[in-house]
Amino acid sequence: MSTESTGMTLARKVHEAAAGKVHHLAAYLVDGEHPLTEKAYAAIMQNLARCPVRPTPEESVACHEAGAVIADIAAGFYATPSATGNNDLDFWKVTEGRKPGMRFVKRVVGGGDQKCPKLVDISQQQQFAALRAILREGIAKASDQYADNQGRCKKCGIHLTDDDSRAARMGPVCRGER
Hints:
The chain is α+β, with helices and mostly antiparallel strands. Helix content is 44%, strand content 16%.
């Protein structure tokens, strides 16, 4: 096989892989029309492996029907039905990035202290799956579920210590009462 036909074969493989991912690679790198060296192919595939899976059309429709997009998810804490079935709920902390609409997610696990629950880093793909789960559950419902199940503020994660805070699902500072 010639070098050019090998390069085109690699380009087509990248094109197929990129179609199922959410990425920010330049179009000419993933269009399947520009031959690639083996080194370029390996680098692009390594990058794509770290990218989240593109939502299915059904997931996209469900999110749009709910009238919400990822950028609508505010920084705070959320609970969604367990993706694995090992627990009733999965717990998440969402933070906003520097760019508009950018969100980062960490998993909330048992432990931590009075001021902050224990957080665990997760892959970009897991972060994207968590954000989609929050949208499917409903942003308000997911944040309320977190507060109700953890007894912590849905905004900052601090323990709720009085009836007013538990009823509001937020402490007095996050409610703007201090």
